[in-house]
């Protein structure tokens, strides 16, 4: 599912790719690059679906991805699962905002 259009929107396109293929504590810094990336979910799904073994993808290290794959052997299409979960989350968030009385600040505004 990963394509050139998604790659063009990725936050990491602006950095040295080697920054995502590090070890140890440097992986935590690499994961920060993924925060706020508009294609983070699709990137992670690609890494999981393709069983990419190295680097930080979608904010997860190879060790984290391996652990997730072991825990969820039943998943055959990570792209479908993750994008569906993302849409569900967005719908719930929108519904909660619509139900909030006018003038009541959100948690982020407090």
UniProtKB/TrEMBL annotation:
Record keywords, A-Z: 4Fe-4S, Cytoplasm, Disulfide bond, DNA-binding, Iron, Iron-sulfur, Metal-binding, Transcription, Transcription regulation
Entry keyword Nuclease: no
Q: How is the cofactor bound?
A: Binds 1 [4Fe-4S] cluster per subunit. Following nitrosylation of the [4Fe-4S] cluster binds 1 [4Fe-8(NO)] cluster per subunit.
Q: Quick one: which residues bind [4Fe-4S] cluster? A: 12, 34, 37, 43
Q: Where is the 4Fe-4S Wbl-type domain?
A: 11-67
UniProt cofactor(s): [4Fe-4S] cluster
The cross-references to PROSITE patterns, in alphabetical order and at most eight, read: 4FE4S_WBL
Q: How is it modified after translation?
A: The Fe-S cluster can be nitrosylated by nitric oxide (NO).
Compartments it resides in? Cytoplasm
In residue numbers, the region (Disordered) covers 90-110
Q: Which PANTHER family match?
A: TRANSCRIPTIONAL REGULATOR WHIB4 (PTHR38839:SF7), TRANSCRIPTIONAL REGULATOR WHID-RELATED (PTHR38839)
Q: What does this protein do?
A: Acts as a transcriptional regulator. Probably redox-responsive. The apo- but not holo-form probably binds DNA.
Per the record, the similarity remark reads:
Belongs to the WhiB family.
Q: What is this protein called?
A: Transcriptional regulator WhiB
Name of encoding gene: whiB
């Amino acid at each position: 599912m990963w394509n050139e259009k998604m790659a063009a929107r990725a936050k990491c396109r602006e950095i040295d790719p080697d920054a995502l293929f590090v070890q140890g504590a440097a992986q935590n810094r690499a994961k920060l690059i993924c925060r706020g990336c508009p294609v983070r979910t699709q990137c992670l799904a690609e890494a999981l679906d393709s069983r990419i073994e190295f680097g930080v993808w979608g904010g997860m290290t190879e060790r984290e991805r391996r652990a997730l794959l072991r825990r969820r052997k039943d998943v055959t299409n990570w792209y479908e699962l993750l994008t569906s979960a993302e849409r569900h989350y967005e719908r719930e968030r929108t519904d909660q905002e619509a139900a909030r009385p006018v003038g009541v600040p959100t948690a982020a505004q407090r």
